[in-house]
Design a protein that fits this description.
By secondary structure, this protein is of the alpha/beta class. The protein has a domain of about 230 residues: FAD/NAD(P)-binding domain. It contains ten helices and 22 strands. The strands form four sheets. Strands 6, 7, 8, 14, 15, 16, 17, 19 and 20 form a nine-stranded mixed beta sheet that branches. Helix 1 packs parallel to helix 7, helix 1 packs parallel to helix 10 and helix 4 packs across helix 10. The radius of gyration is 21 Å and the shape is globular.
């Protein structure tokens, strides 16, 4: 087939890719999305807690509590799991992650994350309004529970720092928690209500709504293989089911699969993967949740979704494409029933997703320094749903040479060169 031409090809149709495509489109560029799935959110963006975060001031650092690390090493916790066969391949990344989680390196990551977090909800709100998707959104924040007194003490100190940064966080006693979420139960040391966040009843549905907006504005979504990307003259081509697509600029927004493209082009960026699972359950009796609830000690989230109560697990460290091993679902569901009356699963098989992470827990947003017209937008760790529209805006401003709304320096790919 003969080649077709657009200004920009975005590789990846998750929340990050669709958001970047919308912002590039709004800046006057003709844009096509290429993905192996025919609709948005076919992978990581489909399965998460559904929280658009507004109260985070620090990334997910590597744990440094020795007792917790010993439990991790024995695979004795519901919060984390690892494949022994994968340790040799994931150990270098884990070491880099550990190094980046303390001292000035950690402070630098926190400084880099905060501008994106501040922009996250306003940027989502603009797209929600344009996509007529308000019916998918809840404005009640989320709740973080603490079972242990040491965890609760640390949470109160963390909340003070967050309040100093302008976040709205309320400490809840038993009566306050019962008023907010009557179905929760069990002995708890305390809880925090993160009031600035919003949540959605289905993350995949929200990405799909943004995708429909992109198509309605003249964008194209083509099924193709991102690994076919090739540099041709002053631009790029990629093979799709509709023929060869050519563009002056290309954006790699493939989440955990981004290294399938950038490694072939000579980049050695330390992209790691934290795998995770979810499963939907019915609730017993008339129990309901009004907002997502995170058990800080159990390392899981219970989130009300259109399909039921979604139970999400912590991290699994394994090879990206290894077969699913959802042992954390069984461990986590037993712990979750201590705080909420989960009923039976409403689907037969847990879903497996992959979180793309750089060691410093900041995304890569900006140019590929070895090539003209190559742009990166990936590595959003646990916050892809949250940060997609904000990072998409920044990426579009860089591609179109507009004034960036925040300093792009913390997200430069060259920080790993």
């Amino acid at each position: 087939m003969s080649a077709s031409q657009v200004d920009v090809v975005v590789l990846g149709a998750g929340m990050v890719g669709v958001s970047a495509a919308l912002h590039l489109q709004a800046a006057g560029r003709s844009v096509a999305i290429v993905d192996r799935h025919p609709t948005p959110a076919g992978e990581t963006s489909y399965g998460n807690s559904g929280v658009i975060e507004g109260s985070v001031i620090e990334p997910h650092y590597f744990p440094r509590d020795l007792r917790k690390l010993w439990r991790y090493a024995r695979n004795a916790t519901s919060e984390a799991n690892y494949h022994l066969s994968a340790l040799a391949s994931v150990a270098p990344w884990l070491f880099a992650y550990w190094r980046a989680g303390a001292g000035e390196a950690a402070a630098r990551s926190a400084r880099g994350l905060l501008p994106l977090i501040r922009a996250a909800i306003p940027e989502h709100d603009a797209l929600i309004a344009q996509a007529d998707a308000e019916h998918l959104v809840r404005r009640g924040g989320w709740v973080k529970l603490y079972r242990s007194e040491p965890g609760w003490a640390k949470a109160k100190a963390d909340a003070e720092r967050a309040r100093a940064a302008g976040m709205r966080i309320d400490a809840l006693d038993a009566a306050g928690l019962a008023a907010l979420e009557p179905a929760l139960r069990g002995a708890l040391a305390g809880a925090m209500h993160m009031r600035d966040a919003v949540s959605v009843q289905d993350p995949g549905d929200l990405a799909a709504a943004y995708g429909r907006l992109f198509l309605a504005r003249g964008g194209r979504h083509l099924v193709g293989d991102a690994r076919s990307l090739a540099e041709i003259g002053q631009g790029w081509t990629v093979s799709t089911g509709a023929g060869t697509l050519a563009a002056r600029d290309v954006v790699v927004a493939l989440g955990p699969w981004s290294d399938d493209v950038f490694r072939a082009l000579g980049y050695r960026l330390p992209l790691g993967v934290k795998r995770g699972y979810h499963l939907h359950y019915a609730a017993e009796g008339n129990a309901t949740l009004a907002r997502p609830v995170y058990d800080a000690d159990g390392g899981f989230v219970l989130a009300p979704m259109s399909r039921g109560v979604r139970l999400t697990t912590g991290a699994e460290f394994a090879r990206r494409d290894a077969p699913p091993t959802p042992v954390q679902i069984d461990k986590t569901s037993a712990v979750a029933r201590q705080i909420f009356p989960l009923g039976a699963p409403v689907e037969p098989t847990p879903w497996l997703g992959r979180r793309p992470c750089l060691p410093d827990m900041l995304p890569v947003i900006g140019r590929g320094w070895r090539h003209r017209g190559l742009w990166f937008d990936f590595g959003h760790q646990h916050l892809g749903l949250t940060l997609g529209p904000a990072s998409g805006r920044l990426l579009a401003e860089l591609v179109t040479h507009a004034e960036p709304f925040i300093d792009p320096a913390p997200y430069r790919a060259e920080r790993f060169a």
